[in-house]
Amino acid sequence: MSKADPSKKSAVQTTGHAWDGDIQEYNNPVPRWWIWTFYATVLFSVVYWIIFPAWPVGKSYTKGLFNTITFQNSQGEEVTTHWNTRSRLIKNMQSGKEALKQKAYLDQIAATPIEAIIADPEKMAFVRSMSKVLFADNCAACHGSGASGVMGLYPNLVDDAWLWGGTIDDISATIRHGQKGYMPAFAETFTDHQLDAVAEYVVSLSGDTEGDAAKVAVGEQIFKGQAGGCHYCHTQEGTGLKSQGAANLTDQIWTVANVPDAHTHEAKLNAVKRVITKGIQREMPAWEGRLSDTEIKLLTAYIYQLGGGQ
Amino acid sequence: MIKHESIETNVGLLIILSLVAMGIGGLVEIVPLFYINDTIEKVEGVRPYTPLELRGRDIYIREGCYTCHSQMVRPFRDEDLRYGHYSLAAESQYDHPFQWGSKRTGPDLARVGKKYSNEWHVQHLIAPRSVVPESIMPNYPWLLENELHYADITERMRALKKTGVPYAESPAEHAANVEKFGEAVANQLNINDAEKNLLRAAEADNFDGNPARLSEMDAMVAYLQMLGTLVDFNQYDEGYFAEFR
Known about the structure:
heterodimer, A: mainly alpha, Cytochrome Bc1 Complex, Chain D, domain 2, two-stranded antiparallel sheet, 11 helices, B: mainly alpha, 2 domains, 47% helix
C-alpha cells in the first residue's frame, strides 16, 4: 500500500465498528465493474455445470445436458456419449477437418505401391511434408534433423552408403523391425603388430597409398584369413555383407571410424584401430507398432529419396 | 442474519463457523478420492516398478527431470500424432508421487520407452548436444560415473508399500501378486528378493553399456525404457477408455 495521505483520510468512510476502543477499519469497496465481472463468472460456472460434466453424485456424476459426442467404435458402430475429452479426441481423429484432409492423402498413399508414389511428384510433396515431421519426432534424435547422422554413432542417411541395404524393401524392413549391428572387439585377438597391419590394410582399401606396403600385405593376410576372419562379414573384397550390416571398406565413406576428421595417416590408423579393438554394438529400435504401416511407408519413401536410394 | 461484528467478537462462534467453511472445502476435495478407483481404467499389463526401475525413478526425481519433462500425453490430436496414445490414469496408479509434470521445456516422456536404443540414452544423458545439436538439456555425466547405491532398496519398497503399492513381503502377499500379475512379475515385486532382482536386471540388460559396473545410468535407462510400454493399446476399443470420463 502506498502511504496514506492524511488530508484525504476524512473522505473515506469507516466500517463503523471499533476494537479495543479506538481501532477502526476503513471501508473501501471494490469497484462496481469488478463486482459485476465476479457475478458474471459465477453465472458462467452455473451454465458450465449444466452443459458439461461437473458434479460428483454418489458413484456417478452429472454428465451435462444438450452436449453429446457421436463417434464410431472399432466395430464401426455409432456410439453416442456425454461430452468428454477422450470422446472428443476419437471424433476429432475420425472426422475432424484436418484429420479428414490428411486422411484423403493417407488413403492414397496406403493404396498406391511405393514405386508409384516415388514417381508421382504430387504424392511426393505430401510425403516430404508429412515425413519431415515424422522424421523429426522419431528418427532425428539419432540420425539428426537433416538425416546426416552422427559420425561413429548413427549412420548418415543422405549418402550412398547403406549398412543394411538401400533398396525400398531394405529401408522398409529396417524401419519396421529395427537392426542390431555387432562387430566383436578384437583387443584380445590381435597382437599390437597384427593390429597395426590390419589397420594399415583397412585404410589402404579406400585408396590411401601412404601406408607401408609390407604392413598392408600382412594385414591383407590377416583380414582374408583365419587369424582375423574379417572377411566373414566384410567379404574378401572388403565390400561388406549387407545381411550383417557390415560396412563397405572400399569406398571413401566412413560410417563408424572417424577417418574423415583425421588429418594425418597416423590419426587415420588410430581411428580404425579404435573400432577394431573395441568392436561395435549398435541398435536401431523397431518401429512396427509405434508407427502405422502407412507412416512406415511414408518414411521409407522419404528416406529413399533423400539421396542414396538404390 | 448474524452480523459481521458478532462473529468477529465471539471466538467460539468464529471457530465453529470456520470449521464449517473448511469442512465444506474438505468434503469437496476429499470425498472424490474415495471414488477414485472407479475412474481408473481396468487394463492389462500395468505393474509396479521393478527394483532397478524404482531406483532409476528416484534418480529421475533427484535430478529434477520433472521440471522440464512432463509424463502426461493429453487427449488432443496433435499430442496423439506426436507422442502416441494419451496417458491413462491406470498407468500412473503406482506412482508416488506421480511425474505428470506441468512444464514441457523438453518433450513429454510418457511414451519414450523403447523409442530409442539404450546406447542413445546413455550418450544423450552424458552429452545431449552430441546427438541433438539444438538441445538445451544439461549434461548428466555423473550418472555413468556414480556407482548405483541400492543398499536401501528394501526400505524404499516398504515405504511405497505403505502408500498402497502392492509390493509383497509375506508369502500370502506374494501369492496375491502371482494371481494378479502372474509369476514372473510377482517375483520382481517381492521385497525379500529386491537386491537379487535389481542386480540380475542390471546384468541381463546392461543398460549403461558397461557390464563390469552397476552405475546410476543402468537404473536411469532401465526406468526410461519402460515408460509407457506396459499397456498394449491394440487390445482395447478406443471407446472403452472414454467410458471412464
